[in-house]
Amino acid sequence: MCEDDLFVIGSRRRIGRKSTGERITYMIRRLRCKGCERIHHELPDLLVPYKRYEAESFESALSQGQSSDVAADESTLYRWSVWFAKFWQYWVNCLSMIAARTGDPVKPLSVPSLSALQQIGHYVGQGVGWLARLVRPIVNSQLWVHTRFAFLSIEL
Q: Could you read off the pLDDT of 126-154 as tens digits, one per residue?
């Protein structure tokens, strides 16, 4: 976030989806920085930037794979797994850097062959809510990579 104070300039609607597939409209506060005048949107922990489904849906699909009970089509679940595979190592590196910056370094992993979810869990903890605990510090450090579009032009 910006270094200066933020003040509310209004709100906007954001349409999302629950894991059941139900559409829901959220009211998101719009904030302006007094210093640089940039506009920020205050997202609740249940949302992931540039994604429509709630974080809980992503967690379920990524943690449980094919046995997930998320009401999304196969192509959406596939895109989520590609998105996760593409960015998880970047997120681990961001979390490591943030921890070092704040003077609270996390002990290095002694077993580098842990799964992606285990490595992320080393920084944010295991269990429900891991995605929100991962997203918040990265977004607030302005390190979140813009992933708005469903189809990426870059080959993995």
A: 889 999 999 999 998 889 987 655 555 55
How would you class 129 by CB atoms within 10 Å of its CB: exposed for 0-12, middle for 13-18, buried for 19 or more?
A: middle
CA–CA distance, 61 with 81 (Å, rounded to integer): 8
Q: Rounded CA gap, 122 and 5, in Å?
A: 33
Q: What is the mean pLDDT of residues 96-122?
A: 80
Question: Are the beta carbons of 112 and 96 closer than 8 angstroms?
Answer: no
Q: Are strands 39-42 and 23-33 parallel, antiparallel or unpaired?
A: antiparallel
HEC assignment per residue over the chain: CCCCCEEEEEEEEEEEECCCCCEEEEEEEEEEECCCCCEEEECCCCECCCCCEEHHHHHHHHHHHHHCCCCCCHHHHHHHHHHHHHHHHHHHHHHHHHHHHCCCCCCCCCCCCCCHHHHHHHHHCCCCCHHHHHHHHHHHCCCCCCCCCCCCCCCC
pTM greater than the 0.90 cutoff: no
pLDDT digits (tens, 9 = 90+) for 19-43: 999 999 999 999 999 988 889 899 9
* Average pLDDT over the chain, rounded to an integer: 86
